[in-house]
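User: Quick sanity check before I run a bigger batch. Here is a single chain. Can you write out its predicted 3D structure?
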Amino acid sequence: MRFLVWLLVVSLAFLPRTFAQSFSVQLPVQLPDLGDSSGSELSLATERKIGESIVRDIKLREPSYLDDPEVAEYLNALGARLGGGGTGLRQDFEFFALRDASINAFALPGGFIGVHTGLISSADNESEIASVIAHEMAHVTQRHIARQIGIQKQMQLPMMIAMVASILLARSRPDLASGAAAAAQGGAVQTQLGFSRDFEREADRIGFQALAGSGFDARAMGTFFEKLQRHTRLMDSGNIPGYLRTHPVTTERITDAQNRAENLPYRQRADPLEYHLVRAKLRAEAADVREAVQTFSDAVNDRRYANEPGARYGLALALLRAKEPKRAEAEIIRLRAGGVASPMVETLAARVRLALGDQAGALTVLQAALARYPHRRPILYAILGTLQDQGRYDAVLATLAEPQRLYPRDPKLHQARAKAYAGQGKRLLQHQAQAEFYFLQGSLTAAIEQLQFAQSSSDGNFYDQSVVDARLKELRAEHARDLQDARKR
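Assistant: Done. Predicted structure follows.
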């Protein structure tokens, strides 16, 4: 993630100056005392704007960003369960994955949580993953990043942007963060790279409450911290897991987590099937293809697995990667015969049918799966992609009608609509849909450009042109407000 250094600085630099003014600070080195989280220098709206800007650039430019709807759906469902524990983690969160083998997760302003695939792959159970995510969610709800920034009062904006970038970078790439910090303010900024001990203890406490209140194994937080500490003792200092660099695990924190768990009644929790399937998927896709096939084959044949459906799913995916779809199909059949029911199994079955050259069969599998799991959007995306590949653009638009009413802010649906109109040669509607895709991605100027293309198209009727004109007027007004804000000091 070397790109993240440049990414964070640039994305923050292009925020309107009204947002930038919130960053003006002076240079005392000490971290703030804990107190009312509303007392930070950044408003909630500003935090969200910063987070959206960073995440947009991560999605567009960061090679390790994992655009996998099933993994994203799993992480967001996990976060929603933690937020429903009645412990104050109620906020709009968005979770995304980065294909990185290191054990790490990090919080960005505004409720955005990045999770490294290495965290999911290395955890022994779902509660361990949940303990880390709950901790990061607590950093967000307690506004620790904003409060950390708010201790400075009169620093110049460029210095502040560099400091914010180095603080955020430390969550994911601490090896690069120290260089960014030195460039920004030398030793003074380096003191800001980690959360304070008080912030860490507060995130532990609130994260633990969310973990226990949401039905997860409350012992997992202490267990995972202890596992990381043991792992560190076996490695040199240059290979310390990223999570330990940015969230140092002390004996005190481990003891506190264990003591909290001892005061709760023992509750055994079985990990859900989706956890095992997502974990197997990440492992099957991360390894060399032949190594993945061998690993999962050995696990299945020798019965060395924590969960048989997960192992067979991983084997089927590895075989598909190895261009052995018939063997992959045999594993899918075994899964179904064993009563395994999951939308992830059905989307994989459809991919196998496609690899066997059976587009009609793949579509039948997906449509049956969507009828069974009507609100699972990864299935919908797969159906839309299959129809697009078949050139069935009318069917794409018909399939999109209800989902776009239910999920009007889903950029993938607008992009699918734009592709369908392009296939039909309907230029005005194509550019109009593409404009909404760019708008939802946070690219306002690109959205305006697309509407200008739509305006100059000659294939729309009076009603279509009127809709485009009205929307273009709205976006231009919003763009003008942003420019006006940017000129203010």
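Confidence is low (pLDDT under 50) at residues 1-39, 153-158, 177-193.

User: Great, the batch can go ahead then.
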